[in-house]
């Protein structure tokens, strides 16, 4: 795969990626032989596709530790980019400058998720959303998406290139989403200039009568239909699909549906469970770690592997990734280890320097890795929470604000 440095041909037939069939920026192609040894390509080469981490969910609260965390994440040759929340650092010019500095230059597969700002607006006004039947609510949502476009442009100017491969949009509002309205909104935003970034719909739990929603948006079938018609992608988050189905079956089903329809662009692995945990109430969209890092999590190594294999089988998926919260007080190596465990389950890769086929030093039996070796630790166990990579330099805010919002409100804000 090419590391977003090549311009696509004028007409792109990949329905999961380019905007309305035409690509104005970079795309993933074959990595040229001369670049295969470059640090830029390592995150792609190890597993055959980019791996993205949502670092804001596992970010330490201390600003100095945040910078160190970014540095550590940038050293991991299996990470290709970060899922960044909007608004977050992207919406504040001073923080955006700091973020552009901390984002590793070789991370060219970054994504931006609109879900934090989307939920903030839905909580303030239940009529706001791209899929709203209310004209004013839909107009407000479109203006919000325009602000994302502008922020990504500013980031590109600071970095000297566009490093955002996907913008994840959502079919809000809760309990009132309309497929026709969503399609109309997408048609409008697709007419805007995105400078090579691609649009995708990230599926969240659909509204089900009698079931408390976390997001309560459109069914995946409606989102797939819109994506297929308009030539954009679908992103499946494992935990959000599990929350919808109240089981571990729905994530695989949604991945298969999107894959068979030719629109699956990415899969993010976050956990969920039917019990109350330190991350919140039962079936919270709280980005739980995989089991056994969080024993109650339904997302285990075998389920991750099966879903990742099904995603790859689709032939359209552009990235896999992980986003998990972590226990407070976790060390930086522990934060890293939780995402590393997901990567190893999804990609079957040994990321440790002193690999082992048995569980130990933070690795799991069957993963063929010692996760403790990657940071130069001497015998330290890296069995703890999540790693994801760069997103919010005010991630202290994100981790504390977002996770506390999850616990208070029910609808996760990220």
Task: Record keyword descriptors for this entry.
about 425 residues; alpha/beta; eight-stranded parallel β-barrel; two-stranded antiparallel ribbon; 12 helices; 10 strands; about 35% helix; globular; disordered N terminus
What is the gist of this entry?
With 414 residues, the chain is of the alpha/beta class. The protein has 12 helices and 10 strands.
Mean pLDDT: 80
| Content-based structural category | alpha/beta
For the largest beta sheet, what order do the strands appear in spatially?
3-4-5-6-7-8-9-10
What is the straight-line distance between the termini? 29 Å
Helix-strand string = EEHEHEHEHHEHEHEHHEHEHH
Specify Rg, calculated over alpha carbons: 19 Å
Total beta strand runs: 10
Regions with little confidence, pLDDT below 50 for 5+ residues: 1-41, 353-411
Strand content: 5-15%
How many strands, which pairing sense, and closed or not: the largest β-sheet? 8 strands, parallel, barrel
Helix content: 25-40%
Count of helical stretches: 12
Anisotropy-based shape = globular
């Amino acid at each position: 795969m090419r590391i977003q440095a090549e311009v696509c041909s004028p007409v792109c037939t990949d329905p999961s990626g380019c905007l309305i069939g035409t690509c104005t920026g970079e795309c993933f192609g074959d990595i040229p032989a001369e670049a295969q040894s470059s640090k830029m390509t390592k995150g792609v080469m190890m597993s055959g596709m980019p791996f993205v981490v949502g670092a804001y969910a596992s970010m330490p609260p201390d600003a100095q530790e945040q910078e160190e965390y970014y540095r550590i994440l940038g050293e991991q040759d299996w990470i290709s980019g970060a899922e960044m929340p909007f608004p977050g650092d992207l919406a504040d010019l001073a923080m955006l400058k700091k973020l552009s500095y901390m984002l590793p230059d070789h991370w060219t597969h970054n994504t931006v998720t609109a879900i934090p700002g989307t939920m903030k607006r839905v909580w303030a006004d239940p009529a706001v959303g791209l899929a709203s039947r209310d004209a004013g609510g839909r107009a407000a949502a479109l203006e919000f998406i325009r602000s994302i476009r502008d922020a990504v442009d500013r980031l590109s100017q600071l970095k000297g290139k566009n490093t955002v491969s996907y913008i994840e949009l959502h079919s809000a509002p809760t309990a009132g989403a309309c497929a026709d309205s969503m399609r109309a909104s997408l048609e409008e935003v697709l007419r805007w200039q995105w400078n090579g970034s691609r649009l995708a719909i990230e599926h969240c739990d659909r509204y089900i009568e009698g079931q408390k929603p976390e997001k309560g948006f459109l069914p995946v079938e409606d989102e797939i239909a819109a994506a297929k018609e308009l030539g954009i992608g679908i992103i499946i988050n494992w935990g959000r699909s599990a929350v919808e189905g109240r089981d571990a079956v729905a994530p695989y089903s949604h991945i298969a549906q999107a894959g068979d329809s030719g629109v699956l662009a990415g899969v993010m692995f976050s956990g969920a469970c039917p019990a109350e945990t330190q991350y919140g109430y039962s079936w919270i969209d709280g980005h739980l770690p995989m089991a056994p890092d969080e024993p109650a999590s339904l997302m285990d190594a075998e389920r991750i592997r099966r879903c990742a294999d099904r995603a790859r089988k689709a032939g359209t998926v552009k990235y896999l990734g992980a986003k998990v919260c972590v226990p407070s007080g976790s060390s930086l190596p522990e934060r890293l280890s939780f995402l590393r465990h997901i990567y190893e389950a999804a990609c079957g890769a040994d990321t440790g320097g002193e690999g082992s086929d048995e569980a130990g030093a933070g690795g799991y039996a069957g993963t063929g890795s010692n996760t403790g070796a990657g940071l130069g630790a001497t015998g330290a166990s890296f069995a703890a929470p999540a790693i994801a990579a760069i997103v919010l330099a005010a991630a202290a805010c994100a981790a504390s604000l977002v996770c506390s919002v999850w616990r208070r409100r029910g609808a996760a804000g990220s």
